[in-house]
């Protein structure tokens, strides 16, 4: 990595100071990466690429690292790679070893003490590797349940939406030493047909104050604009978007094949999907980077 580029930790700090948020977008193919990167460079803002455990298997662990690092080094551009929602120490370790810039250990479904134990193990490993390699690997964890799966749901899943308690969050951060916290503040993973809840901006503020580390908003797809802006002005420093990109990809590919049924060149079939993703990401990045 170039010495003149800030680390992801520094970009997140800068976003907090500016009152904006960094966009985190998931990929499972090259088309999505190209669409996201085009949008980010248009606005000249740092961007985080996420791969979940499933997406990581499809893309390839080392391939994901190679893709993002190649762009970063070629263009000297702040594009970073995050292991999104990894459920075990082993899978977090694999991502760290492969060269990811950040990881999310997602043990929020486990009882509190077990969540603390596995999260702590991930933090200790990340610190050890950072020390030995000169990298600065960030560890994020989740507290409170925000559902799972970047898909389309009829209604809010049972058990999801249990809000994070600020005092418990403070204790959790202290006990684990994490760098970033994903609290549950009203958003749910996926797109919800019956509509999403509002973000509890007051709770965001309380948690940010209590924990003293940057907060990450998950389940951003389908939220109202004012939910994003309220969340960001209350202390959210990074926002995750996945389902909206998946939907844009699917609809663009469907339309592309319907419109040109004899076309067999993948680049021609898929270019509209790249363009559609770029549009979705650009609109989100404009919103996240709106000064208040
Ligand atoms: Zn998430």
What is the gist of this entry?
With 292 residues, the protein is α/β, with parallel strands linked by helices. The protein is built from eleven helices and ten strands.
Question: Would you mind describing this structure in some detail?
Answer:
The longest helix has 23 residues. With 292 residues, the protein is of the alpha/beta class. Strand 3, helix 5 and strand 4 form a beta-alpha-beta unit. It is globular. The two termini are 32 Å apart. The chain is 52% helix and 15% strand. Zinc ion binds next to loops.
Principal-axis shape equals globular
Cα-to-Cα separation, first versus last residue: 32 Å
Decide which structural class fits the backbone. alpha/beta
Let me know the average pLDDT. 93
Number of helices: 11
What's the total count of β strands? Answer: 10
Radius of gyration: 18 Å
Spatial ordering of strands, largest sheet = 7-5-4-3-2-1-10-9
In the predicted model, the low-confidence regions spanning at least 5 consecutive residues are none
What percent strand?
15-25%
Element-level helix/strand string: HEHEHHEHEHEEHEEHEHEHH
Q: For the report, how would you describe the main beta sheet?
A: 8 strands, parallel
Overall helicity: 40-55%
Q: What hetero molecules are bound to the protein chains?
A: zinc ion
